[in-house]
Amino acid sequence: MSENKKITIAIDGHSSCGKSTVAKDLAKELSYSYIDTGAMYRAVTLFGLRNGLIENGKVDEQKLVNQLPNIIIRFQYNAEEKKNETFLNGERVEDEIRELTVSNNVSPVATIREVREAMVKLQQEMGREKGIVMDGRDIGTVVFPDAELKLFMTASDQVRAQRRFDELSGKGSDATFEEVIQNIRERDHIDSTRKESPLRQADDAVVLDNSNLTPDEQLTWVIEKVNKILEQIQ
Ligand code: DC
Q: Which residue lies with its CA nearest to atom 3 of ligand 1?
């Protein structure tokens, strides 16, 4: 593998289909940075919830947009945990943004054009040097349309819900499987039908359905694709 040629890897797909697992493994293997763009929309949502700008599932869009300059999101590498952690206005919010209240409110926030524009701008800055793996819904279509490798990931909703349920249960959450699958279906629907940058497969993306693949198997599959691209651009 070439030491100096770095590429951009864009990973898009449905909620909870293991995008972040592939992205993290890939970043580690290639010594690239990993950016979880969902965490950014989640952090904006957390800000909205904490400041009374989202109530009963209703987002006060104008007030949230006005607050965008006061929502500072950054990632910091935690060497002990070996992962990037999300910070909102200087506070580590890595756990808070994964809670079900945030999951239940993030989709409408991610439909707001001004929120998307601000996040996309930040994401493009973070990826300017290449050598990055970024996952989300619009990375291959909007953020990095010229990415050398675009993956479009999917898995059945039952498989995805079970994975998310296990993850939440492991963290002590009392969310039921029914609630989790409901949330996933709702988010799929909003993410795919929204007007602003809906989730869609880029024409030049490769599809990875990992319903029946282990993390190791999918990593091997993706590394093969990366190596082919790196060979071609030498
Ligand atoms: O990947 P995730 O579940 O953490 O994403 C949280 C929400 O943010 C999800 O409803 C879709 C939205 N999102 C988006 O619209 N665009 C992105 N690039 C990443 C996430």
A: 15
Dihedral of CA 172/178/179/181: which sign?
positive
What is the Cα–Cα distance from 182 to 234, expressed in whole angstroms?
A: 46
Q: What SS3 state is found at 174?
A: coil
Residue 2: predicted pLDDT: 47
Q: How many CB atoms lie within 10 A of CB 176?
A: 12
- The token duo for 87 is 């910070």
Superfamily of domain 8-232 in CATH is: P-loop containing nucleotide triphosphate hydrolases (3.40.50.300)
Closest ligand 1 atom to 97 CA:
4
43-64 as b/e: b if 16+ CB within 10 A: bbbbbbbeeebbeeeebebeeb
| Per-domain boundaries in the chain | 8-232
Distance CA 136, CA 207 (A): 15
The distance from CA 184 to its chain's CA centroid, rounded to whole angstroms, is 14
Quote the pLDDT of residue 83.
Answer: 86
Residue 151's φ and ψ, nearest 5 degrees, are -110, 140
Q: Is 0.70 topped by the overall pTM?
A: yes
Among protein residues, the one with the nearest Cα to ligand 1's atom 13 is: 38
pLDDT of 67-103, one tens digit each?
A: 999 999 999 999 898 889 999 999 999 999 999 899 8
Ligand 1 atom closest to the Cα of residue 39 is 4
Please state the rounded mean pLDDT for residues 157-166: 93
* Ligand 1 mean position, distance from CA 227 (Å): 28
